[in-house]
Amino acid sequence: MGFVSNATEYPSEDYHDYIIVGGGTAGCPLAATLSEHYRVLVLERGGVPYGQPNVMTQNGFLQTLMEVDAYDSPAQAFTSEDGVPNARGRVLGGSSAINAGFYSRADQDFYQRSGINWDLRVVNQSYEWVEKAIVFRPELKNWQSAVRDGMLEAGIDPYNDFRLDHVLGTKIGGSTFDTFGTRHSAADLLNYANPSNIKVVVHASVERVLLASSSSYSNASQSAIGVVFRDQMGRYHHAMVVNGGEVLLCAGALGSPQLLLLSGIGPRPYLASWGIPVAHHSPHVGQFLYDNPRNGISIVTPTPLDHSLIQVVGVTSLGAYLEAASNIIPFASPAPPVFIRNPGTSVYLTVATLMEKIVGPLSAGSLTLSSTDVRMNPTVRFNYFHNPGDLQRCVNGTRKIGDILRSRALDDFKFHEWFGVKEFRYVGPELPVDQSNDAAMRDFCRRTVSTIWHYHGGCLVGKVIDKNLKVIGLDGLRVVDGSVFKVSPGTNPQATLLMMGRYIHISLCFE
Ligand SMILES: Cc1cc2nc3c(=O)[nH]c(=O)nc-3n(C[C@H](O)[C@H](O)[C@H](O)COP(=O)(O)OP(=O)(O)OC[C@H]3O[C@@H](n4cnc5c(N)ncnc54)[C@H](O)[C@@H]3O)c2cc1C
């Protein structure tokens, strides 16, 4: 892509119709689409994913999440105040360049309740545009096929075969990994941009949105006129919008509320406590932040499994979605008989995982600043299971995991036999033996909570932005990413975020 350059090459000041902050899952399709008619600048704090084998392949998924550093790795690690480790994308393509690749459209309820102005015909066209470019039908191998059959035995029916839309029952979803296991992220959608109308600048950390007085015709007193960003050498640059242009924040559920706060857009007393000059009092910035709990179990399988990320999903009406993965992980010796040895000397272990994502969730948390340095993660708390409804959903889903685990379809994957003894091995948390015991099940849920990385909120529709995603009370500033969602769409959010990036140009072009 000839239009991608390093921030160090950007002049100290330049002008554009639209400035997109964050070349992530929603930002890239939005940039490609707007460039059909406008001069667009994308500012991305990370580098490019291409040429990074772990990022670009399905097999590199875990490695990418493990190889993190404070300022430069494609995955930026953070741990919420709840004590749960988590990750966010820091690379062109955003979190779609480090995720597990599962692709499934939003549920119908989401469009009704999200508060966003949706035209469902354009929604479908936008999904189709994305799917033609970067979505594939996965080929199920041993573990995923067995889980699909196990889900059906456990009563998660009907069987819907391969479907991209959200339907009750068991289905194979789409994948952004192709049949060779190569990743296709949102960054690939930039191939559809008009190259003479777009500039993508990487290693550009946006520090602040610049505001100025609005014209006398506007209801808002201030308007976004540009942003300040820093390159890797620490030099400052000003990217400005021409008259009538806009700044579009696509920095993700952590990045967008963080940037609003650093720009003086947030609760007045809170900003004052940080010594940040208040540009616009917006009391709910950083509030209503959510993360869907993930619970589940992993077992050691007697036969080596093919590596797989999520391909099959069980959509229940119990408040939980069931998914599965199988990983081959290096393991320290001594090696018991269940471990397999590769042709070298390393010892490997194949681990099969069954997990649930809690729908919603109902429990809300919040985001605050930890520093005025934008490169540092903000402080987040998700308050997992504070709402008893989430806990009940987890208990329901965990019982389904038990049903799947007991299914005949999984028989070949459960028991090792050596020295005439049959043994079943968990890696990590074990399911309660008596799954009818509510207290034990609730305890399991609380003890084993982790993240499925679908955190969202922080700039909610109706609280921080309006139904066209404009920041309430300001001109020329919108938020287009997962921070605007009150609930996570469908079983997994990336399809909806990719669609939304394509979709939102409609309101920009025709409102
Ligand atoms: C490990 C992992 C696995 C996942 N698996 C799946 C899955 O299988 N299926 C699924 O549907 N979803 C999955 N998700 C969730 C999904 O990927 C995210 O919800 C989605 O990608 C978020 O999109 P976004 O546009 O809101 O933000 P992002 O895609 O994260 O984009 C934000 C971008 O903004 C940039 N940015 C932030 N701050 C600044 C700044 N100050 N200046 C410049 N740039 C900035 C970031 O570097 C990033 O590129 C997973 C997520 C993770 C982390």
Automatic annotation (TrEMBL):
GO molecular function: flavin adenine dinucleotide binding; lyase activity; oxidoreductase activity, acting on CH-OH group of donors
Domain Glucose-methanol-choline oxidoreductase N-terminal: 89-112, 252-266
Reported cofactor(s): FAD
InterPro entries: FAD/NAD-bd_sf (IPR036188), GMC_Oxidoreductase-Related (IPR051871), GMC_OxRdtase (IPR012132), GMC_OxRdtase_N (IPR000172), GMC_OxRtase_C (IPR007867)
PANTHER family listed in its UniProt record: (R)-MANDELONITRILE LYASE-LIKE (PTHR45968:SF2), OSJNBA0019K04.7 PROTEIN (PTHR45968)
Cystine residue pairs: C394-C445
Name the UniProt record assigns to this protein: (R)-mandelonitrile lyase-like
Keywords, sorted A to Z: Disulfide bond, FAD, Flavoprotein, Lyase, Signal
Record family assignment: Belongs to the GMC oxidoreductase family.
Residues bound to FAD: E44, R45, V91, V206, W453, H454, G482, P493, Q494
Species, as recorded: Dorcoceras hygrometricum
A Pfam family annotated for this UniProt entry: GMC_oxred_N
